[in-house]
UniProtKB/TrEMBL annotation:
Annotated ranges, domain ChlI/MoxR AAA lid: 253-318
One function term, GO molecular function aspect: ATP hydrolysis activity
Name assigned to this protein: MoxR family ATPase
Keyword tags: ATP-binding, Nucleotide-binding
InterPro entries according to UniProt: ATPase_AAA-3 (IPR011703), CbbQ/NirQ/NorQ/GpvN (IPR050764), ChlI/MoxR_AAA_lid (IPR041628), P-loop_NTPase (IPR027417)
Pfam families documented for this protein: AAA_3, AAA_lid_2
Limits of the ATPase AAA-3 domain: 46-176
């Protein structure tokens, strides 16, 4: 049985490396973003990317959709967007004298929600149903979304004018929140040399939706020790600590992470082990993914804002206190 798992992990690791290499032929650098997108796909969740314009967020998502041979649609969120612009609507067909469904761009395997925080609450609620229930309601009928269905949303951290902060309930639906930084000078030089000459770089299909489902099943078989499971739960539960006197970081947290954080941290730790070619999870796998999984699930207090602390800073303090198994 163990040999069988090791063979599956080795095969999955090889397939993922081919996928990464193919994506890297078009998207230079930004490996944490690529790994985060692939991790979200394998974990069956959605990903929120935060970064300034021009960091290849849209290019990366489009490239991933081509590499895994999946349907792709891009929705540019604006303040005047309507729910029907996303999910679709009923239109009257004069020839037959009846209403028919015209499906919206959400009916795709990979949906890029560009600048998601620019849309009002009604649009967010329509997208929330699609993200959580994997279905949309048009008229009186409910329509299932394709499998896999993956929403990758972007938001600009430096612009607040004309934006609507995402509600906590919607943020919690994102399995990961990735923070994207500028490329290094060497990477930017490579971008200049490659993209300055030819912006249409072809990529090969290395995965398919069926292979993606097989990779998910392989990830589920990865072994995780009871002590690491307890370590995961302890980290998440620590964000709900209310004893501000004996626990030094408690005063910086207004609201902690939900049990959904434990579930996603558990899944992502397994996938991180698969990325490394291992059939078992180690504590470093948890540490590698914990910031991306939890940074958007913690609401900071006034004390944290006054000391200019971020959620990543608070997570670091929690990790220093909790014993590693």
């Amino acid at each position: 049985m163990t040999d069988n798992i090791d063979v599956l992990i080795e095969k999955a690791h090889t397939q993922l490396e081919k996928c990464r290499t193919e994506i890297a032929s078009r998207v230079i650098g930004q490996s944490p973003m690529i790994d985060g997108i692939l991790m979200g796909l394998l974990a069956g969740g959605h990903v929120l990317i935060e970064g300034v314009p021009g960091l290849a967020k849209t290019l990366a998502v489009k490239t991933v959709s081509e590499v895994i041979d999946a349907t792709f649609s891009r929705i540019q969120f604006t303040p005047d967007l309507l729910p029907a612009d996303i999910v679709g609507t009923m239109i009257y067909k004069q020839q037959g004298g009846e209403f028919v469904v015209r499906k919206g761009p959400v009916f795709a395997n990979i949906v890029l929600a560009d600048e998601i925080n620019r849309a009002p609450a009604k649009v967010q609620s329509a997208l929330l149903e699609a993200m959580q229930e994997r279905q949309v309601t048009i008229g009186s009928n409910t329509h299932r979304l394709p499998d896999p269905f993956f929403v990758l949303a972007t938001q600009n951290p430096i612009e607040s004018e004309g934006t609507y902060p995402l509600p906590e309930a919607q943020l919690d639906r994102f399995i990961l929140k990735l923070k994207i930084d500028y490329p290094t000078p060497d990477e930017e030089l490579e971008i200049l040399r490659r993209m300055g000459v030819d912006t249409d770089i072809p990529v090969k299909r290395t995965l398919s939706p069926s292979v993606l489902r097989d990779l998910r099943k392989t990830a589920e078989k990865i072994k995780i020790d009871d002590r690491i499971e307890e370590y995961i739960v302890t980290i998440v539960a620590a964000t709900r600590e209310t004893d501000k006197i004996s626990v030094p970081y408690a005063k910086f947290i207004e609201f902690g992470a939900s049990p959904r954080a434990s579930i996603y941290l558990y899944r992502c730790a397994k996938i991180q082990a698969m990325f490394e070619g291992r059939s078992y999870v180690i504590p470093d796998d948890v540490k590698t993914v914990v910031h991306d999984v939890m940074r958007h699930r913690i609401v900071l207090s006034y004390e944290a804002e006054s000391e200019e602390l971020t959620t990543d800073d608070v997570i670091d303090r929690i990790l220093k206190i909790i014993p590693v198994p």
